[in-house]
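call fold(seq) -> C-alpha cells
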Amino acid sequence: MKETLQSIEIPFAIEQPSDKLQLAAGEVAFVFPEMHVRFYRHIHELFGSHGRAYPR
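ret:
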C-alpha cells in the first residue's frame, strides 16, 4: 500500500500506537492530511473502506 500511495503521489504518514492513537498490538495506521475528494476516492478504493478520524 505504501508503494501505491507513493506512486500516485498521495501524502501520508505511518504511525504506531501511542497514547493518542489507540491501535491493537502490531497494528500501524496510515494517516492522511485533509484532502480533495478525488484523492480520498483513491484511498477508499485501496483500503476498501472509510477510515477513522484522527483523535484530537
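Strands lie at 13-15, 29-31.
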